[in-house]
Design brief:
The strands form 4 sheets. This protein has a 26-stranded mixed sheet that branches. Among the domains are: 2-68; 233-367, Roll (Nuclear Transport Factor 2, Chain: A); 417-468 and 541-579 and 598-805, Beta-galactosidase, Chain A, domain 5 (Distorted Sandwich). It is built from 12 helices and 38 strands. It is of the alpha+beta class.
Length: 837
């Protein structure tokens, strides 16, 4: 913003010149008795000089503003659909926001992004250029059979692409010892329909730096059975076509029951009532129909579920062998064919439902989250609320996806399947965490419904960060206007193209509270709680999640997982013989005319690979206990035989330490505990092992005990599990295991196999979540619910680590008076953003 500063300075000089001229004129008039005419002339001259100063300042400001574009913020334009060879290049350009011309007094707003070339950085997400390069190579090698829009399940095409993180040993050799920089590779998931035995294969493809590329198998043929693959849109389209004749047969039932609805104009198929298979070798999809409550057919309405459902037997690639069966209407069935169901309906042997006329016309008003115009605005709601911005410009810098702020540094990464991740997190030049990453989200629904009972979702199977479609940040809602927005790239398998998403924002936040404070008799002191936030909102079907990583001035790291969006409902059958209560049933509350909110959970699994100073650490449990004084003292000296007399009571609190020797999974602990990762070889000034505490925020527990999901999604059983780190154990789930639960292959329980974890490279798998019983407050939109965990210094420093920051301090005698750095009052820089323009 140097050009604005120049503008202001020039303007001030002009005013100073005027004041000086005026002062000299008045002095001469006093000494020499200047005439009225001379005074008038002089005043006119002053006005002219003043005007010339202003005009000159404006011209200089305009010239500087148009002559330098380096200070514009990165990527806040609506450019999701721009493509180059099937993909866009947003992450490699400095696309500015639409900034209005800056006026005098606007706060400086230099661009914190110093380099946008992701391909130069070890952990940066893949770019669209890299993805396109990989796709062309795989086509050349005949690993895939098309780069056009796939039209048949007998073709082979790319499902997903993501960065394959470097081997940790090689990365640390580069980061810590100046070794060779690890090359960038892609992990590519290919659905192979053109081979004799169709399957899914994963490849490590690269290097991506322009040298000779290779594609190395990460799985062997047949290991991932074709029928255990994630759903994709070719299969959905084929099932829809298969069911069209059945819905033609059932058209009278649908019209009479559901307010004249017709397929496909008014209703659509919901096939995502997973899983499609439990053994991974068969494939059988449950479906139900739902109203199209939104005006755009691609927006999914899972609130207006209707009680017509069935199954599609859909294994393999030969759709001519698929068939439909198991039809149910209002939970009545099964009927082997749609003809049988229609005959039973016409014979009046079934209970029937009939929505009131005109119900369909109210869907948009019921579901769209718009302001209720029938209600008056709240007092003063028509004026702007609180805002925040930088009075002296951003205090963080970004090179590629490498971020620095207030002695913190880290690299942002992530993938469309697993979600956001951070690597190489350092504080005050010491590594604390090597990898902090979202891994999976598990949900299990319970409903009294043929199609929807026992729905199990593992969101990494669908794609946490862009599995269904690109998701973008809502400017001014997800992130403040002064945030810096970075992109990740999304591979969209229906078009075999790469797209960029405005997916991650970084900004410094004002907590507007004290990080620490004290008010005494003779002094007061405190430090305002400012922290850096990395935020990644994502959409998985009907649910919206927001993941946040907060970095604090005292060395804490908070990880948050927040949920909003639409619930997945079930049809409310007022005359359900299983539920005489008209307000609730065993699975949830009635929420609308024809909707109930089924109970479910959201369990978030994270990989937390802490490296306290170096990679070899120990997991320690500090137990918070209570008991007799002698029992407490014996924990530190077993030879004590009698409690000292100076203890007033013979019961006390105390702590007990345990170094965990072997891999462990901690379920709901029976006693209060502190979970620590410590470096036994590194001590603070007082001789205590330096470490960090893992502290979950409020979290739910896994209530299921014998359910089939407890192997494939075994991470949901534990609040924290600790294992020896291995390159082959990258994640706590496989994206395929939820579709082959009876034969799960890669899961957390398998990682916990009794190996030593003392003074070794260990990984903590942290699970937090919440139980959701939807209520009327979730209609039409679930208001933010959150959980998470904190990583907190635990004897890591010799004293509070934030005393190298300017603070507020004041003593009564005036000897000491300190404050934060001063700044000139200025106004917020203006930006405009429109996603749909």
């Amino acid at each position: 913003m140097s050009q604005n500063r120049a503008y202001i300075v020039d303007n001030e000089n002009a005013v100073a010149d005027v004041k000086l001229t005026t002062s000299v004129s008045e002095s001469r008039r006093e000494r020499k008795g200047t005439s009225c005419k001379q005074i008038c002339c002089m005043q006119l001259f002053v006005v002219v000089v003043f005007a010339l100063g202003i005009v000159g300042g404006i011209l200089i400001g305009i010239y500087a503003y148009h002559g330098d574009s380096k200070n514009n913020n990165i990527d806040v334009n609506c450019q999701t659909n721009s493509q180059e060879q099937g993909g866009s290049k947003l992450q490699t350009t400095k696309s500015p926001a639409k900034e209005l011309p800056k006026e005098p007094g606007v706060c400086p707003n230099p661009n914190p992004v110093q380099d946008t070339r992701y391909e130069n950085y070890v952990y940066a997400p893949l770019t669209s250029t890299e993805m396109n390069k990989v796709a062309k190579y795989l086509l050349q090698q005949s690993i895939i059979s098309t780069l056009e829009d796939p039209t048949s399940l007998t073709q082979s095409f790319i499902l997903y692409q993501a960065l394959q993180p470097p081997n940790k040993a090689e990365a640390l050799e580069y980061l810590d010892k100046g070794g060779d920089k690890p090359k960038r590779y892609a992990k590519v998931t290919v659905q192979r329909g053109h081979v004799p035995s169709p399957d899914v294969m994963e490849y490590k493809v690269g290097p991506l730096d322009g040298t000779t590329m290779t594609a190395v198998n990460m799985t062997f043929p047949g290991y991932i059975h074709f029928n255990s693959r994630p759903y994709e849109w070719l299969e959905v389209a084929a099932m829809t076509d298969l069911l069209r004749p059945d819905l033609d047969i059932l058209a009278p039932l649908i019209s009479e029951s559901f307010d004249g609805a017709r397929f496909p104009d008014d209703i659509y198929f919901n096939f995502f009532n997973g899983p499609p298979s439990t053994n991974g070798k068969e494939r059988d999809t449950r479906w139900n129909i739902a109203f199209k409550g939104f005006r755009h057919e691609e927006d999914v309405d899972l609130i207006h579920i209707l009680p017509l459902s069935g199954r599609v037997h859909n294994p393999g690639t030969d759709t001519s062998k698929w068939y439909t069966y198991d039809f149910h209407y209002l939970n009545q069935g099964p009927f082997n064919t749609s003809q049988e169901l229609m005959a039973a309906y016409n014979s009046n042997t079934l209970r029937k439902v009939k929505l009131e006329p005109g119900f369909r016309n109210t869907l948009w008003d019921r579901i769209f989250p718009k302001r209720d115009s029938s209600l008056p605005l709240r007092d003063r709601a028509d004026s702007q609320g609180t805002r925040a911005y930088y009075p002296t410009g951003p205090r963080y810098t970004i090179e590629g996806t490498h971020v620095k702020w207030m002695d913190w540094s880290f690299d942002i990464s992530g993938s469309q399947m697993r979600g956001p991740a951070l690597f190489n997190i350092n504080f005050k030049n010491e590594r604390i965490i090597y990898e902090l990453a979202v891994n999976d989200i598990a949900l299990n629904y319970a409903m009294d419904s043929h199609a929807q009972n026992n729905i199990i979702y593992a969101d990494a199977t669908y794609g946490i960060m862009g599995g269904d479609y690109p998701t973008t940040i809502m400017s001014g809602v997800d992130c403040p206007e002064h945030a810096t927005v970075l992109n990740t790239t999304f591979w969209w398998h229906p078009t075999q193209s790469a797209y960029d998403m405005r997916s991650i924002c970084i900004f410094e936040a004002d907590g507007q509270d004290a990080l620490w404070r004290h008010v005494g008799i003779s002094f007061e002191a405190g430090l305002r709680n400012r922290h850096l936030i990395v935020r990644a909102p994502v959409v998985v079907g009907n649910y919206d999640y927001t993941f946040e990583f907060h970095f604090f001035l005292d060395g804490k790291v908070y990880t948050h997982a927040k949920a909003s969006g639409y619930i997945q409902s079930s049809f409310w059958d007022e005359f359900n013989p299983n539920s005489p209560d008209k307000t609730r049933d065993a699975f949830g509350y009635r929420l609308s005319d024809y909707g109930t909110g089924p109970v479910h959970d959201h369990m978030f699994g994270f990989k937390v690979d802490m490296d306290i100073i170096d990679k070899n650490n120990t997991f320690q449990i500090v137990k918070w206990k209570a008991g007799p004084v002698l029992e407490a003292l014996k924990t530190q000296n077993p030879n004590i035989t009698k409690a000292p007399e100076y203890f007033i009571y013979n019961e006390t609190r105390y702590i007990e330490w345990e170094n965990v020797q072997k891999e462990i999974g901690i379920q709901d602990p029976s006693e209060q505990q502190f979970w620590l990762v410590v470096n036994e070889r590194e001590k603070n000034k007082w001789g205590v092992e330096r470490g960090y505490q893992i502290a979950p925020l409020a979290t739910g527990d896994q209530a299921l005990k014998t359910h089939p999901l407890l192997q494939a999604l075994s991470f949901t059983k534990y609040h924290c599990a600790v294992t020896k780190r291995k390159e082959e154990e990258q994640t706590l789930t496989s994206i395929y295991d939820v579709n082959r639960m009876e034969h799960a292959q890669e899961y957390l329980d398998k990682h916990i196999n009794g190996e030593s974890i003392v003074d070794d490279d260990i990984v903590n798998w942290v699970t937090v979540g919440f139980l959701h019983v939807p209520t009327t407050e979730d209609m039409p939109m679930t208001v933010k619910v959150e959980t998470g965990f904190m990583l907190r210094p635990f004897n890591f420093f010799d004293r509070t680590s934030s005393f190298d920051m300017p603070e507020h301090a004041e003593t009564r005698d005036g000897i000491l008076r300190e404050s934060e750095p001063s700044f000139e009052q200025c106004s917020e820089p203006k930006t405009e953003y429109c996603r749909f323009c």
